[in-house]
Amino acid sequence: MIDTVIFDMDGLLIDSEPLWGIAMREVFATVGVNLSPELTHLTTGLRTKEVVSYWHNYYKWEGKSAEQVVNEIIDSVIYKIKAEGHPMEGLPYILQYFREKGFKMGLASSSPLRLINAALEHLQIKDVFQAVYSAEFEDYGKPHPAVYLACAKALGSDPLDCIAFEDSVTGMTAAKAARMTTVVVPEAHNRHDPRYALANMKLDSLLEFNDAKLSLLIK
């Protein structure tokens, strides 16, 4: 019986993807790497160290270690979230919806735990979740299902009893690989990506989810 919901965070609960893009471009520029917004979208959903490794292998910059670049990006995103991070449309609604249904609620993100905690505190929703997991502590990040499986285990839930909410193809792939029922709420610019057909349901906003949608998922 589906009784658990697990959320991604960046781009789903908080409008942080643009902030990630700005932070990455600013920090990468300090090592002579100029990334366009289109290029930063290529790594959406990956862990920060994987993003940096991806571009370091391509550009092979010198002067700063990959670890230093990773930490500078994370520090910058945390600063930007605290200064200008906004909840995604429908955030209070969707959390209240599942709370009233009595669902167990978890969060499974590719972001480092210190950034997750900063975002949840900024949004004042940290106490909503019974389990919060970061892929930084797993051997593999999304699209590997490890972080979703770890979160489900912490909640005492079978993955087959979980609904996962995601906004990226990478995250959707991870949730589906974990055998979870998956709802995607993509960003407007890639909403028509044909790969989202893998999801059980696609929405334009969290506000669109309701009892009728839930019934379609659990029958």
Give a structural overview.
The protein is α/β, with parallel strands linked by helices and 219 residues long. The chain has 2 domains: 4-15 and 86-218, 3-Layer(aba) Sandwich (Rossmann fold); 17-84, Putative phosphatase, domain 2 (DNA polymerase, domain 1). Helices cover 45% and strands 11% of the residues. It has 9 helices and 6 strands; from the N terminus they run E-H-H-H-H-H-E-H-E-H-E-H-E-E-H. It has helices spanning 17-29, 37-41, 48-59, 66-84, 91-101, 113-123, 146-155, 169-177, 211-218, and strands spanning 4-7, 104-109, 131-134, 162-166, 181-184, 201-202. A 6-stranded parallel β-sheet has the order 3-2-1-4-5-6, covered by helices on one side.
Please sum up the structure shown.
This protein is of the alpha/beta class. The protein is built from nine helices and six strands; from the N terminus they run βαααααβαβαβαββα.
Reconstruct the topology from this structure.
Layout lengths: L3 E4 L9 H13 L7 H5 L6 H12 L6 H19 L6 H11 L2 E6 L3 H11 L7 E4 L11 H10 L6 E5 L2 H9 L3 E4 L16 E2 L8 H8 L1
Parallel strand pairs: 1-2, 1-4, 2-3, 4-5, 5-6
Helix pairs in contact: 1-4, 3-4, 4-6
Descriptors:
six-stranded parallel β-sheet; DNA polymerase, domain 1; 2 domains; alpha/beta; 219 residues; Rossmann fold; single chain; 9 helices
